[in-house]
Write a structure and sequence with these properties.
Blueprint (H helix, E strand, L loop, with lengths): L2 E6 L6 E6 L2 E7 L1 H4 L9 H11 L8 E4 L7 H10 L4 H6 L7 H9 L10 E4 L2 H10 L6 E11 L2 E9 L2 E9 L4 H12 L9 H6 L7 H7 E3 L4 E3 L13 E3 L5 E3 L5 H7 L11 H28 L4 E5 L6 H4 L2 H4 L4 E4 L8 H13 L19 H10 L3 E4 L2 H13 L4 E4 L13 E5 L6 H10 L8 E5 L3 H4 L11 E4 L17 E7 L5 H14 L3 E6 L10 H10 L4 E4 L2 E4 L2
Parallel strand pairs: 1-4, 4-5, 6-13, 13-14, 16-22, 18-20
Antiparallel strand pairs: 1-2, 2-3, 6-7, 7-8, 9-10, 11-12, 15-23, 16-17, 17-21, 18-21, 19-20, 22-23
Helix pairs in contact: 6-14, 7-11, 16-19
Length: about 575
Amino acid sequence: MSIILGINYSHPGSSACILVDGKPVVAIAEERLNRIKYYAGFPILSIKACLKIANIKLSDIEHVAIPSDTTANYFEKVKYGLKNPKKIYNLIKIHNSKDSLSNLKSLLSKYFDSNDFKFKQHNIEHHIAHISSAYFISKWNNSSGFSLDGSGDFVSTMFAECRDNNINVKYREHIPNSLGSFYTMICELIGFSNYGDEGKVMGLAAYGSNNFKELLDDVVGIKSKGFEINKKYFKTFGSNYGIKIDDRGKASIESHISDYAIKKFGKPTLFHTALSSRDMDLAYSLQNKFEEIYLKLLNQLHNLVPNENVCMAGGATLNSVANGKIFDSTPFNKTCIQPAAGDDGLSLGAALYVYHSVLGNKDRYVMNGSYLGPEFSDNEIRKELIKFNISFEKLNYKNLITKVVDNICDNKVVGWFQGKMEWGPRALGNRSILANPNSPIMKDILNKRIKQREWFRPFAPVVLENYQNEIFECNHPSPNMTHVYKIKKDWRERLTAVNHVDNTGRLQTISRDQNKKYYDLIKEFKKRTGIPVLLNTSFNENEPIVCYPKSAISCFLRTEMDLLVIGNYYCIKK
């Protein structure tokens, strides 16, 4: 039996996973357990939870995979250091610490009684781990591979040929050229200066115009291979590539903007102040420019690695609006996008790379639903409900589905906590808040009573897979909520709560073999209303998505959620 532990740390998205004979038994982001969003410290809670769920000891681990290799791209770092002498010391520092075996064993020995660890450590280059995280969960034995994010191991973009057990790198775009950093810089101008705020731009963009096109054309441009940023607009990167981590392990972004950029664009909007028409136009122009470069990069990849399939990961591949345009703007016909496409998914990618490319195993795991987290028995859930003095009743399967749909039809808001927690940033039906997509006031209800989100951010539809083509203008499935498609004209008024101002939806498609109870709930709603769609948003309130029953119950009690359905228990407020 082959047992591999994957760990991502010292970088936002700390996480751990365990592979047993190539199959992910469990994978968890640390933020779900310690409740610190975008946590970047050592994921000790995740490691311990993974060991417990997999029912193994640390001494059983044969291999540990780390998605970082500080020796990678050495000459590019030297060239950059020579051009930026003030940064040489910072660049030298990253050759120490987290990549050393002695350092990892030292960290583990703080939390485990023994320090007699027998595992072999493997350091996998950041973007190779990203591509592996998508390719080795796909059903294909060959595809193009694409990774795009801010930076990792001094690279921001990677093209690869994925064939059998191998990831053959065809091109790397090195720092300081970074489409992720370009996106972050404009976000800062708009006033979205927190780590992770980039996703808000897609929603705001629909309210703006392309008034900054000419200026953004000067900031970033395409090359015959790769792209190039105009360095006048950016501050020089150091060893952390613009990210800093505080003593609690929380990640934040250092300012990317140069004085020259402020002179051209104007001063950044202050955080939590009203957005102006300039900010909306910046958002539109940014998203438009990103899509232009993104799709051209994918066309370049296809020229290097002709294939109808593309496997994608890296934080920038969570740009679901751009992903929705791949099929009309590139030769690719099929995508496999890692559900944890950000850096939390690196632990799984590194572990899969070790299993297949290092150890040479050929048997493949095909992901069908991203449910890799903890789950809880009825007995565990019942104990927590009693602790919180919650009024509840236990229902059989049919009655539970019936009563929940009764509430959704009555425009009630339902907290839905079931089975194994999802892997990745999206709530996909096991840690979700569900509501009626047909209610024109549901978006306002959710924001006022629970989510407290900005007015311009849309909520997402989940649709029964066999009805996707009837409702959306693209039939490529999106099981992990990674594509935005146009909603067909006949359905827009029936889906007012999930139809964005530009008539799009970031959909999740669901089949019964992926999630039986979730599917049956939507099917029953369709039977009652004729609508095979529910509104689905993450089960949280400005915090990481809930993991444990106690977190779900606490969120239910402190917000104006109407109903909590947790396992087989139906709970209402007294």
